[in-house]
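Internal QA ticket QA-208
Title: Verify multi-chain structure generation after dependency bump
Assignee: T.L.

Test input:
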Amino acid sequence: MLEYALKGTKKYWGWIFFLSLIIFVGVWFYLKQFSYGLGITGLSRNVTWGFYIAQFTFLVGVAASGVMVVLPYYLHNYKAFGKITILGEFLAIASVIMCMLFVFVDMGQPLRLINVFLYPTPHSLMFWDIMVLSGYLLLNILISHITLEAERKSMPPPKWIRPIIILSIPWAISIHTVTAFLYSGLAARPFWMTAVLAPRFLASAFSSGPALLLIMVFIIRKLTKFDPGDEPIRKMAIIITYAMCANVFFILMEFFTAFYSAIPEHITHFQYLFFGLEGHNTLVPWMWTSALLAIVSLVFLLIPKTRNNNRILFAVCIAIFVSIWIDKGLGMVVTGFIPTPLGDVVDYIPTIPETLISLSIWAIGFFLITVFYKIALSVRRELLT
Amino acid sequence: MYDSGKIILGLIIFVGLFTSPIWYDLASGKAADKPNLVFPTKEDQKECVNTAEYMREFHMDLLNVWRDEVVRKGVRTYTSNTGKHFEMSLTKTCTGCHSNKAEFCDQCHNYLGVTPYCWNCHVEPHSAEIKR
Amino acid sequence: MNENRRKFLKLTGLAALGAATGKFADVFAKEKLTKISSLNITGKKRTTLVGIDSKKRWAMVIDLKKCLVEEGCTKCIDACHKIHNVPDFENPKDEIKWIWKEPYEQAFLDQENYYQKDNLKDKPVPIFCNHCDNPPCVRVCPTEATWKREDGIVMMDWHRCIGCRYCMAACPYGSRSFNWRDPRPFIKDIDPDFPTRTKGVVEKCTFCDERIAKGQLPACVEACSEKAMVFGDLNDPKSNVRELLKENFSIRRKPELGTNPEIYYLV
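Actual output:
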């Protein structure tokens, strides 16, 4: 089916070339990081995880959110999602690959990653995270390949694939749960050590992931003959609304527990995020932007009139995506380290090489999504020629 | 076959480029360079931990075992087939006799194009970095 | 484990030998093989060579009164960092340290007292790896590159570490450092008897396992002229550390986390 990706319009090739250029720049900077070491990033003895691991965490969410189209379509036989389910699965594949790349570039000794498999260590959550992510990737590759192949031949997919699809549903939940456990099981980091972290991760994933999916549906609808109709879009908007409500609710829970209990080591992290500590306030404007976007978009989502307006919905989806990206992709990871276990308030700012390497991995993701969607839409002959 | 001319030409260019290091070495005469090991002189020569035949083939396996025994099990003494005891240490035991890395270790490693990462951490004897 | 290794070595020996001599028919000549691939590490002789005494539980007691006698003293730090080839980057971003001093209030963040005894207020306290009995770093490591030995030492295997830094996130004491870049150019005097580290691995205090193996005391203990640091076996009721703990009031860093740190401070 790959041949479909090799024929395209000038616009298609221009976009592919643009992404390749960004990827190339990132690879060059990665080679620099490979020879110099991770010191090329803004990370330090005190803030040992930063932008890379934060992107990883955010993207695990996007990957898991594929389940929000898979579940209604396959489990509840909700036919309206027929056209966008494959898009959700492809988005999941691209996201998992981005996740793996972000973990890879964060390793101090990337060539020794094989040690994780040579010395399997079940008491480490990192081991389980690598296991469930690889499994999820394989499941989605298999499912999307089999179902699309069947569609190309205008045949129903084989029966044996259904239990595998059903298995992929709890599996999607598991990848983000295990990713939350990476953090929430650490007594050393009170900011992360909260039982609500896994549910919160899932809620933010199930709003930001479908929001990204809707953004892309709107874009391809404009560029191609692809039209899933309004019904799945309305349904997705409702899913995003529920998930976003849950997400905001969970964040407010965190606030209450931290501030009412008034335990210093719980409060200080939130103070650092929203007000700054001892003059260190790098994240403050970002976090307020995130909060504002979350509230405004939630209001627009809750009012049926605005939610049902596609133009407003498009903007709201972007707002939600940005809001949660700031929350998870900037604030969540770094703040676990600030203040340090010894009470020092330190700063972390990603460097230019670090940012470009990250951008390049995002470009790889978009490259894959473009190619995958091109294939899917070509199979259905829904492209403008 | 469509475009067979183009494809064959492309294949020839690819194979040429891919094997270029071999041609380069042949042309520059480097391929004829054989490793030239310098062994400890008679006076310095002590008994090795195993036969030369064994060491030639398995020194890397032996070192890996030594590494795990010392670091992970805390066992530091090795008994050779002749019953002699040795400290399991690359920098003390091995380079105690083979003190010139460039004329011993590097000879074969360079020839075979392997770069063991031992020396990223373990300190090469008589290295310029040791200032004492 | 040892049997497996022996089998593996035999197999590799088999393959290598076969390939090298080309005499495949000869390969199954068992005698020759065992002769060539036998490593006498395993077997009976082994028992006399075991380096880790599982009956022991190493720990340290630090008498802060004695430690504070000499103001600005860095003897323990210097001794440790010198023999372990710890680099000096002179910037906090790349910093690597095995043992260092923090003000009392920060070393013991949970001892929140507005009015502190003058002899402790803002005073530097030596801190390093606590060699916890229940180490969170060991729990999270995905490759067992860090693990707890039977004698309680939390060890590091720098050959195996993949540099994921999960252990650094999990350590509640900030005891671990990462090689953000090649440390060698930043080591003033390389001690050839101890390896340096390579970029991309985590390192920390190992309680001088290499000295304990030889029956010596940790370098910091030996370097302290006030004898403020006392090293010994907690499992022995008559040991120096147990005697000190019996007679003095001691505190530990963040004991409430259940990590069971094995460095005790007398205040």
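Spot checks passed. The first strand of chain C starts at residue 58 and ends at 63.
Status: verified.
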